[in-house]
Amino acid sequence: MNAERSRIERRLEVDAGEEWTATGAPLPKSMLADVQDVVTTVADLLSPEDIPDLRHSADFHAASAALASVSERLAHLLSGDGELVQQQIRGLHPFVDALVKTQAVRSAVEQARNTACIAAFNDVRDALRQLQSIRSVEQLVHKAAEAICTLGFDRSQIAWAEDGYWITERIFGTQEQAWLDELAEVGRADPQVLHSELYESELIRRRRPLLVSHARPDSPHVHRTFIKLGRVRSYVAAPLMTEGTVAGFIHADRYFQRCNVDEVDREILATFADGFGYLLQRTVLRERIEGLRTRLTTLTESMVRSDVGVLQDGATAGSSGLNWRPTLLAVGSVKLERLPKANLASTLTDREQDIIDLMAKGATNAEIARRLVISEGTAKWHVKNVLRKLNAANRAAAVSYWLRQNSR
């Protein structure tokens, strides 16, 4: 862990947290050349300090703002309202030509931006189509984090909203995955409380996507650990809906591009989250049905073996003495059938009771994670909380206490 933690330390040393000037999708290189050509031409005609500098902001926002500024400046001079004297402008034709060219490039930039938006939403459709054939919830969540990074983002996080906590499931990036894996582990080891000031709490209440343009590590509205250790400048987030409730949320940014996210990014992620929520719900239902089918088959085989054994002993089928109790395992938001809560109702949350029910059946952390559709790290966190709340030294002691309390 020390070696892995040094990745966070090295990242903090390399990235001092300076602000970025670029925002949103980058401008195509060929179009950037046209914009720079117009800006350079106007700068030669006017005072260079009056012209926006595009050297560090090669995105649609910067290009549109620069062209709007140039166009306004030229129009102002040609309208006669400016203090430009005829002798100083060396004729009007260069200015008229520059204005015409500026307007043409400005129109082309807007058209390219609209085309890029359409292409981005088509990419969302393609990404969701690639996920449709996945039959495992665990694999679906795993692949969804990667799919988000085909939509213009380069980091994504999928997390659950559970028992008032932000539980990180996976963080994926197009680079430096070991650093991001450590970030996810930090998030699971010390989950963020979903208090009322947090932006994500508002996201859960309103069920709407959000754009955080300036994420500051000292703000009470953000997950301070992720903002600081992940060097987050801005991010977009969208609710993950299943069965009509917010099961969690998805985050994304453009960290490795050194670029802030914008409103278009927010809508792209929201569209993906909507479609992914339906896929997740369908896959949960499929796993639930397959689990019931498997357990029914096992139960039937067990009954047949028991009846055969009784008949071989000379007993009648009706006196076989079968004493079985079918247990319905839940996936996702469906709860486990559990023993009466007794006086532990105010001690353990519903999810923690799901956890100890599975512990009582001998399930390992990996099995608990698979059955409840959470990561193994999240399962370990829940087990630790159960042991702490029951004041138990180990799993066996916790299960023993739980069974004694519920047998009263």
UniProtKB/TrEMBL annotation:
<keyword id="KW-0805">Transcription regulation</keyword>
<dbReference type="GO" id="GO:0003677">
    <property type="term" value="F:DNA binding"/>
</dbReference>
<dbReference type="InterPro" id="IPR016032">
    <property type="entry name" value="Sig_transdc_resp-reg_C-effctor"/>
</dbReference>
<dbReference type="InterPro" id="IPR003018">
    <property type="entry name" value="GAF"/>
</dbReference>
<dbReference type="InterPro" id="IPR029016">
    <property type="entry name" value="GAF-like_dom_sf"/>
</dbReference>
<dbReference type="InterPro" id="IPR000792">
    <property type="entry name" value="Tscrpt_reg_LuxR_C"/>
</dbReference>
<feature type="domain" description="HTH luxR-type">
    <location>
        <begin position="341"/>
        <end position="406"/>
    </location>
</feature>
<protein>
    <recommendedName>
        <fullName>HTH luxR-type domain-containing protein</fullName>
    </recommendedName>
</protein>
<keyword id="KW-0238">DNA-binding</keyword>
<dbReference type="GO" id="GO:0006355">
    <property type="term" value="P:regulation of DNA-templated transcription"/>
</dbReference>
<dbReference type="Pfam" id="PF13185">
    <property type="entry name" value="GAF_2"/>
</dbReference>
<dbReference type="InterPro" id="IPR036388">
    <property type="entry name" value="WH-like_DNA-bd_sf"/>
</dbReference>
<dbReference type="Pfam" id="PF00196">
    <property type="entry name" value="GerE"/>
</dbReference>
<keyword id="KW-0804">Transcription</keyword>
